Amino acid sequence: MSAFLQLEGLVKRFDGVLAVDRVSLAMERGELLALLGPSGSGKTTTLRLLAGFDTPDQGRVVVAGEDVTAVAPVSRRFGMVFQHYALFPHLDVRANVAFGLESLGVHGEELDRRVERALALVDLAGFGPRGIAQLSGGQQQRVALARALAPEPRVLLLDEPLSNLDPTLRERTRREIRELIHRVGITTVLVTHEQDEAFELGDRVAVMRGGRLEQVGTPDELYGAPANAFVAGFVGQSSSAPVTIVGPSARGVRILIEGVEWDVDAPGGAPLPPPGPAVMLVRPEALRLTPPDPAAIPATITSRRFVGPSAVFTARTDGGATLEVVAPPQSVPAGARVGLMPSRRVGGGIHLFPPDGR
Amino acid sequence: MKRPQVRLGAAVLLVLLLWLVAYPLVLVLLDGVRGPSGWTLAFVREFLARPTEWEALWGSLWISVVSVLLAGAIGIPLAFLFARYDLPGGRVLGGLVALPAVLPPLVGVLAFLFLYGETGFVSLLVQRVLGLTEAPWRLQGAGAILLVHAYSMYVYFYLFVRAALQSFDGSLLEAAASLGAGRWRTLWRVVLPQLRPALGGAALLTFMTSLASFSAPYIFGGGFRVMPTQIVATRLNGDDGLAMVETLSLTLLALIALWLFRGGVRAAGEGAGRKGAAPARVPVRHPAARLAVAAAGWGLAAVLLLPHLTLLLVSLVPVGTWTIEPLPPAYTLRNYLTLLQDPVRAKPLANSLWLATAATAAAVAVALAGAVTTARRAGRDARAIETLLALPWAVPGTVFAIALATAFSVHAPWVGRVILVGTIWILPLAYLVRNLPITSRAILAGVRALDPSLDEAAATLGAGRARTLRRITLPLLRPALLAGASLAFVTALGDFVTSIMLYTYDTRPISLEILSSLRQADVGVAAAYGVVLMLVSAAVFAVGADRGSAG
Fold first, then answer.
1. Helix axis angle, A137-149 relative to A108-121, nearest 10°?
2. Alpha-carbon separation of residue A131 from A81, A97, A116, A310, B507 (angstroms)
3. Is B462–A84 a contact, with Cβ atoms under 8 angstroms apart?
4. Where are the alpha helices (DSSP H) in B408-509?
5. B459–A74 C-beta distance less than 8 A
6. HSE on the CB side for A290, CA within 13 Å?
7. Nearest CB partner across the interface for B456, out of A53, A88, A153
8. pTM, full prediction
9. pLDDT tens digits, B139-173
10. By CA distance, what is A79's nearest residue in B?
11. pLDDT tens-digit series, residues B170-183
């Protein structure tokens, strides 16, 4: 096996409730994987199983061929950045960063050098004597990173590392973290409920729900070919409407929606459901607004919100569905009668799933 | 991680607590229904048949209820005054108002004796001014007890309510105002419901303290009966069985009170850690109003400080020189010198210090062990440990003294009984058991406030259990440990109720020496002891509070 870090069939129950359900993952050395999911999806529990704070009921954690499932966190040599950083408030920056090195028996000049190097890595050279309370949130976050990285752990675990930063700082920090992790080349698992964060940081993203892995793949794969309705809905923006699948067509597949027939690209990823009732998840950019037209679904614009240079219009179809469409901001006023058609651009954006959502 | 060790530690602790806390009480229960010739209800019947027993029980109950009302009537308005209004000198006054807390019960009683007793300071003054031929009042009976209780216990209401008002979210008041609620409606519907936990907590604490109160009834009671003094008297008469039944009745009363108040206490725990800024203090602007408020405030402070000052004054008076003059004719440091130089007189001071130190160290160790093994664990043994740590609080001091005296006066190692009564170990043990609730409450709160991810962070950084405890947990717990230790130390140092039942000549503590000095009419030395107790208590509190907030 070439994988550096492997999770094999991890199962964890709390009081009989399944928190993690047969999770298996394999990661290359130096890869950054983002565990993405809503709260209660089991992503944090998975991370805690990795760190060793909890022991799985079944399954194994393997690092570089060594089974560490039963190894205590103390001897696991996994670095972790906690959601609220968990910096030791009574120790200064230097002592915080030195803490893990001291466990390894590093001392004297060597210790000073490595602490300074870790601080330089996160752009905090010279911050050693500062107290934790004197630091800004962003600086605390970087100290937490330096502390976790200083003992040169085998794996780095990040628990919602950006959730405590204000939004303006978040984007910049995200880039910095990505750069840093790639520079250090450490195998990293990140837990987040923010799709943007997962997509920008992760080489691959693992989407979790109800303790299970729904899909693992690159951001492109998840967006372009979601494995099921949950992933399609959770990743990126989309709106949904009930449709009927008529059958294959010249372009891909023919569907019937509110009495109008559309010929759309066959979506990748999940296999096409059989003809009959289905659910359509559609990205806002996969639809376009037209004047009322027999080939378009009749709808009324209910609201509009700005997204960068364009706007997302919310349209309520006469059939009662709510669909979102991207268009230039001034296209139509609220309340206007419009038609909705698939965008002319070829390339998906419309996904079809069985009606139960799976 | 390392769960077996924690479980083993919890088991050892549980056994220790069962032996020290629960077992003696069970023995009391058994001795109440067991005579020389087997099981008997004779003592219970005797108890039920005696009107004096009912009188004492009823006395304890109504004194406690009235004490709660009086303490509330003084403490609550004071708390509002200092929390809501920016008074001239308000900060200093706000601190002074809490001063009765540094008077150990017996010392407070002593000060009241010097102030309002038959030959007391204030009594003589009133007698002189009104031209009376004898003292204007007698400091005796229920009135005297209530006076002392109101003075020493309003502090609970004051501190609890003031803390609640300070953590009160000011935006709630603004929200109420914006919804058109007037002053009274806001007070009634918004402020008071928020204060309920504080009021409940203070009322319970006051009730339990007065129910257990021994010093005031013992010195001032006269013919007035309350249960704690009744128990001691019965025991001195040698009616051990009856004393056990009395003990049970008092325990029962305490437990019923605890049960009735349980809602308020639980809410008090939940109310902690509320967010939001306290409403700004309202400045008093009008010059006349400022003057009036300042005068009233400082006048009040003077009244509250009178006992402390009186003690100090009396401690400086040479023996036998001060008889009928309103102020002493001569001053001396002799009493303090006696206390330090005379080996017989210095012994109790040294005794109290080492007894309190030993008991405090042990209480902190047990409480820390309890907190570490029970925090963040929900098992049955964790709950049992917490209950046992808190139990001595619900049981009046007299009861525990009796229970320990009973349990450890027999040599029967195979049932966990050894003779400790009459040895130097019984008093530190009694102080330890009595201090477990306050100490463990402070330390448990500290442990619970620690972020559990700090432990986990230390683990991911390769620190073992010992290093984590030494480098992370203990340094962060220092404020809680100091707070717990200072409370335990001050309580043990001033203890009277357990000491009087368990002391030996070699371990006689300050409180007993104060009592015997008083009996020998050596008031100067008694007052000097009182001043020393007061100063040490104040210093320990100050250190505890200071270090506590610095961390």
1. 130
2. 19, 12, 16, 46, 48
3. no
4. 426-449, 452-460, 465-468, 474-494, 497-502
5. yes
6. 15
7. A53
8. 0.80
9. 888 889 999 999 999 988 998 888 888 877 777 77
10. B460
11. 777 777 777 877 77
